[in-house]
Design brief:
This protein is 26% helix and 24% strand. By secondary structure, the chain is α/β, with parallel strands linked by helices. Helix 3 links the parallel strand 2 and strand 3. Helix 2 crosses helix 11. The protein binds adenosine-5'-triphosphate and magnesium ion.
Length: 568
């Protein structure tokens, strides 16, 4: 059996048990599945994976790993009209990036089409499936409602030979799309609507990305999924709660074929996040209609978007562990995901100085043309990350926000006549404020105390405020992209029109194009992450080039988050 150390590849996350883990522990005691755990993650390749899928991946792969089993990556490619190879590659990349490995167990449902077809023929021969000529509209009418039983189709009692012939003709492409379906013969009065003779095959003449135009009939999810699990000898087929009502059908199909492997389906709650939509259909709409720049837009809840934004696999796995596995749906606060991210970045990131909204400061008593190299600590919480030198000179930039001409009472940053500490450098006092014709502050004149080098004074005085800065002649220019939530409401679906697009935040991207970075950031590479002191965590975007550095704001610092919350 596995140990907490190899849970999801995340050594840090504490293992909290859940009903699925408990079930597997039981099964491993009784030997129900021959002491094996075989799970699968079965995405339909019709879009990019999102953070909800990440939860499922952590459960499917994480549990298999924990119990020394395997997890298959299976593309559930049974609907040729929506699937693309681009999605397959993206999904593989994302699962790997999250830190999971399917080894040789990469499968495609389409590889089982012939086998599934033959089993459908077997059900027809057993009198358990029939070809129905009713239109989709009629089928719906005959189906009844939650309170009324359905009615048998007039085609329900066709003979086996006729059914076999018609199904073969369907498969040859003799009939129009929508003109016939193959249905399971179960019970039109069953209280569970899914059991009222569900469709098993429909006619579709769209070529398939892997089987080309070989097939003119395609299996429906409920028929296909259990068979896919069976074919791969899955023990624990884990899926989300919306499939709970389908489980009787999943089981019914398998019970009609007692000689094939009988897997077991168990459902867990979907992940929902505030300020986020999480269905591939909706995410596709955002991409297609240009509300975002692509599937990997850093505002998207896709794994590729989160990666580009600066999320780490460790932070996402820690989040998945923290939210746990429940049997009831709930909405998780986006702040929790961000909390897990900060926890991880805090340990890993170098802290550097960057000024997002620069205000020029001239230190009048500092010698012209002099530069000093001051020592800066890379991460005060991890000495092993060492120190670096940052240049200091007569002209520096500070954050515009860090100066106020008429400060309120508890303002400890820079203001006329007040002393402030420059991080790793000196104490300065503001002596003069330079303004343009409109009264906007364009420059500050200050003096420094040469006795305070390194940020301490021999006389023991200590200013209340410490601010960050960048030496002007050494500064590197950069573009910084600041992201807000993609939606203005916690529940994006909360709109009178019912259209989540109405709740899009038109202000979710702000580009600041003249930020000043300390020179140690001159040669950054896409994907690198830093903490900009006092501001937040930032990640080099893939648009970044040596000539034009581009950073994404990954997440604010904790206090900034709390402050924002307070301001509302
Ligand atoms: P979507 O509605 O976003 O397209 P889906 O369920 O259709 O999602 P699939 O590709 O069929 O997407 O899903 C693959 C697996 O991921 C399924 O087992 C599904 O249960 C799981 N999954 C999908 N969304 C979530 C979610 N929000 N939380 C947890 N698991 C999810
Ligand atoms: Mg789906």
């Amino acid at each position: 059996m596995g140990s907490p150390e190899n849970n999801g590849g995340n050594a840090q996350a504490p293992v909290v048990s859940n009903f699925i883990r408990d079930m597997i522990i039981d099964d491993m005691k009784t030997g129900k599945w021959g002491y094996k755990v075989v799970t699968r993650f079965p995405p339909e390749p019709n879009g990019y994976l999102h953070i909800g899928h990440a939860k499922a991946i952590c459960i499917d792969f994480g549990l298999a790993k924990e119990f020394g089993g395997v997890c298959h990556l299976r593309f559930d490619d049974t609907n040729p009209s929506k699937e693309e190879d681009e999605y397959i590659e993206a999904i593989k990349r994302d699962v790997r990036w999250l830190g999971f490995d399917w080894g040789e167990h990469l499968y495609f449902a389409s590889d089982y089409f012939q086998w599934m077809f033959d089993l459908a023929v077997r059900l027809i021969k057993d009198g358990k499936a029939y070809v129905d000529d009713l239109t989709a509209e009629e089928i719906r009418k005959y189906r009844g409602t939650l309170t009324e039983p359905g009615q048998n189709s007039p085609y329900r009692d066709r003979g086996v030979d006729e059914n076999l012939e018609l199904f073969a003709a369907m498969a040859r492409g003799d009939f129009e799309e929508g003109s016939r379906v193959l249905r399971a013969k179960i019970d039109m009065t069953h209280p569970n609507m899914n059991m009222r003779d569900p469709a098993m095959y429909r006619i579709m003449k769209t070529p398939h990305h892997r089987t080309g135009d070989k097939w003119k009939v395609y299996p429906m999810y409920d028929w296909a999924h259990g068979l896919e699990d069976s074919k791969e000898e899955i023990t624990h087929s884990l899926c989300t709660l919306e499939f709970e009502d389908h489980r009787p059908l999943y089981d019914w199909f398998l019970r009609q074929l007692p000689d094939i492997h009988q897997p077991q389906q168990t459902e867990f709650a979907r992940l929902n996040l505030t300020y986020t939509v999480m269905s591939k259909r909706k995410l596709l709409l955002l991409v297609r209609d240009g509300h975002v720049k692509g599937w990997d837009d850093p505002r998207m809840p896709t794994i590729s978007g989160l990666r580009r934004r600066g999320y780490t696999p460790e932070s996402i796995r820690a989040f998945a562990e923290r939210i746990g596995v429940a049997k009831r749906d709930s909405v998780v606060d986006l702040a929790l995901l961000e909390f897990c991210l900060r926890e991880d970045l805090n340990k890993k990131c170098k802290r550097v100085m960057a000024v997002l909204n620069p205000l020029k400061v001239v230190i009048e008593n500092y010698p012209e043309n002099q530069t000093e190299e001051l020592d800066a600590v890379n991460n005060p919480e991890d000495e092993s990350m060492g120190t670096r030198k940052v240049p200091f000179s007569r002209v520096i930039y500070i954050e515009r926000d860090d100066f106020m001409e008429e400060p309120p009472k508890k303002y400890f940053r820079l203001s006329p006549g007040k002393e402030v500490r420059l991080r790793y450098a000196y104490y300065i006092i503001c002596t003069d404020v330079v303004k343009d014709a409109n009264g906007n502050v364009t420059e500050l004149r200050c003096t420094y105390d040469p006795q305070t080098r390194g940020g301490a004074s021999p006389d023991g005085r200590s200013p209340k405020g410490t601010i960050h800065w960048v030496s002007a002649p050494h500064a590197i220019g950069a573009e910084v992209r600041v992201y807000g939530n993609l939606f203005t409401k916690e529940n994006p679906e909360d709109t009178p029109s019912g259209n989540f697009i109405d709740n899009i935040n038109s202000d979710s991207l702000k580009i600041i194009d003249d930020c000043k970075l300390e020179p140690s950031l001159k040669n950054v590479e896409p994907g690198e992450k830093y903490q900009f002191e006092r501001i937040g965590y930032f990640c080099v975007d893939e648009d970044s080039t040596p000539g034009k550095i581009v950073f994404n704001r990954t997440v604010t610092l904790k206090d900034a988050w709390a402050r924002m919350q307070k301001k509302g």
